[in-house]
Amino acid sequence: MRARVYTMLTLVVLFVQVFVLNNLSISPLVAPMVYIILIVMMPIESSQWKVLGVGLLLGVAMDITMGTAGLNTLVTLPIAFFRRPLLYALTGLSPMSKEEGIPSVKRLGMRFHRYFVIMIVLHSLLFYFAEWLSFDNFGILLLRILCSTLCSLVLDYIIIMLFMKRLSA
Amino acid sequence: MQKLLLFIRKTGVAIVFVILEIVAIRCYAYSTPYTQARLLVWSNRVVGYVHSTFAGVSNYFTLRKENIRLTEHIATLENRIRTLEASVPEERVHVEGVLQRYEYLPAKVISSTTNRRRNFITLDKGFRDGVSADMAVMTPEGYAIGVVVDCSENFAVAKTLLNVDFRIGGVLAEDGSHGSVVWGGGDTQVIDFVELSKYAKVKEGDLVRAAGFSHYFPSEAVIGNIEKVELADNGTSYNCKVRLTADMGRLFNVVLVRNTGAGEAQSLEEKTYY
Description:
heterodimer; A: mainly alpha; B: alpha+beta
């Protein structure tokens, strides 16, 4: 059941990212990235190997569809690799705990929001710095990070609200 | 053996992560000339000082040779000045400063590559010294080397003629015919001089200079001598092989050249042409 819902979540996220957000041209300051929630929302018990594998596949897929040759992969891999320690640190879970399933408010309480927001913001920061590679026009870079991260967060929350009930079941 | 397996099991994921990350960074860096130059500038902030120390040591050993070469060059230049002074009427000499289009700045090469398809050199001068993108890089003798693509506070990165993405205008010194100079990625001392009109009077040994209209190099900058002449497949132009005069593998002292009129000329061209 969970696998089926997770597959649906993956399809929806990829569709939104590839066909909607990648073609969005509201302003050069807004370029939301929602695909990272597929890493953030992986089951708590997922091994580091599994998360890294998903991170690699996701990064490569995004690079192919965006034509960015490595940018998404190099940003997604550290998020995938450090997800486990970050999850434990930000939610107060212990590596010994037997908690399983998709991270959610029901399982992790309000600390879920802290974990969720920090992961998305970290990914955005890494992505836009790696894309810009320069501190020239720092103001515009900062504004781009701010607008895009806010937009990503809103979209991410909408997507997980749609799926949370089924995923936490 | 068991300990080794245990170690791999414990650290395997971290090793795989580092390897994948390096591969991703390399893919990204080589995807466009911009990312390549920016990442080089970033890494130079860290390793530039180490490079410059090593370059300083190796420069010390070649100082004697360099001194002799520079003294000879100064002597040649002095001779040229005397000859020019003798031939130019007195009243025209004083306007030279007003008409000067190029500014020169000496720099040292602290690292360089010649073994890649896109080769760069790192120089010990940055924007603090007045370096900016698009400045030409030449040897003190006036041989063309490349163009600055990016600079940090203390260092500059220039793409050299040995960079497949770099194309400049070239001109046959004797005939005045124009063509494009571009490197095909093979021999590091031989470069292609293509799109040269089939009506050009070209022969082996002819001198190729940088075209003044390229806005980078002064028109006296020497690229090399024609080594081989071939008619292109379409029969309308010549494709020539040019042996570079600058020894790209042994660059120590270079001169950065700024064309002070380039911006004005380019904006005028953009306004008129497009």
